[in-house]
Design a protein that fits this description.
286 residues, two-stranded antiparallel sheet, single chain, binds manganese (II) ion, alpha/beta
Length: 286
């Protein structure tokens, strides 16, 4: 099949997610904060919520640097069943409170259908992680809630599979879906995953949904996060998700890819030419 025919064939299978004209872009309005369209959004915070003090300290720093959405996992999908699994409902409360205090929105991952209502009634945005991108019952469940969904690309998923996963959510009635490229599995072990930055123009050409980049999981190495964040912005990404900690080496999960709050502030300063002035005024340079 020619590249053009393949593009049209994929578009034809996307009843809700397909871009129907060049200016067709979803803008999600979260109480006045826009995601998609002309906005550029930075989501930041630790891999996991570890304690009330930890999430409050990080929230304060990432908000000061210009991030507007606070992340932090409380139901962690870990490779080992013996690794820290997250603080659960208690951590959810800590995350939401820390975000509120800084005037930020909050996002956390939901890993199973039975947790959807509880998570949806707490945070502003529900994350479906890479490992669950193919969990169609979960996709349908988050498709029925009235909160936006941040869908991460499966680590071995094609663009078609990724977009059809978004289609599951949209077709259940939830129009507010964001896509996030977070690296795919390749033969290269030096980086944890291979960050596929071509996903930005490819997906934006096929769908009206906002496209984010996660350079933290995408590389697995904190030294690579600033350059990949800048590259994502240059490629036209609608936003970034970055793991940040006040003491990255002490992070309970994903410490190697987590940047310090100072490194995050410097990175935000370097990105300021791409970020909206109302986010950044007096913050990144402070
Ligand atoms: C995360 O963002 O906390 C996470 C687990 O990421 P991913 O699903 O991309 O591995
Ligand atoms: Mn992580």
């Amino acid at each position: 099949m020619s590249a053009h025919a393949e593009h049209n064939d994929l578009l034809g299978s996307l009843k809700c997610a397909a871009k129907t004209h060049p200016e067709h872009r979803t803008v999600i309005d979260l109480g006045g904060q826009h995601i998609g369209g002309d906005a550029r959004t930075v989501i930041a915070g630790p891999c996991s919520v570890e304690s009330e003090a930890q999430i409050h300290a990080i929230a304060e720093q990432v908000a000061a640097a210009g991030a507007t959405i606070l992340r932090g996992g409380v139901y962690k999908p870990r490779t080992s069943p013996y690794a820290f699994q997250g603080l659960g409902a208690e951590g959810l409360g800590f995350l939401v409170q820390a975000a509120k205090e800084q005037g930020m929105l909050s996002i956390t991952e939901v890993t199973c259908v039975s947790d959807v209502d509880r998570v949806a009634s707490s945070v502003d945005i529900l994350q479906v992680g890479s490992r669950n991108m193919h969990n169609y019952r979960l996709l349908q469940a988050v498709g029925k809630v009235k909160k936006p969904v941040f869908l991460k690309r499966g680590m071995a998923a094609t663009y078609r599979e990724f977009l059809l996963a978004a289609e599951y959510i949209l077709s259940c009635g939830n129009p507010d879906v964001m896509l996030c490229e977070r690296g795919i599995r390749t033969f290269e072990p030096y980086t944890r995953n291979t960050l596929d930055l071509a996903a930005v123009p490819v997906l934006q050409g096929l769908t009206h949904l906002p496209v984010f980049i996660d350079p933290s999981h995408g590389t697995g190495r904190r030294a690579l996060v600033p350059s990949m964040a800048a590259a994502a912005m240059a490629a036209g990404a609608d936003g970034l998700m970055i793991e940040v900690h006040t003491d990255p080496d002490d992070s309970i999960s994903d410490s190697q890819q987590t940047v310090s709050t100072e490194a995050f502030a410097a990175l935000m300063h370097d990105l300021s030419c791409w970020l909206p002035l109302d986010n950044m005024a007096g913050k990144a340079s402070a």
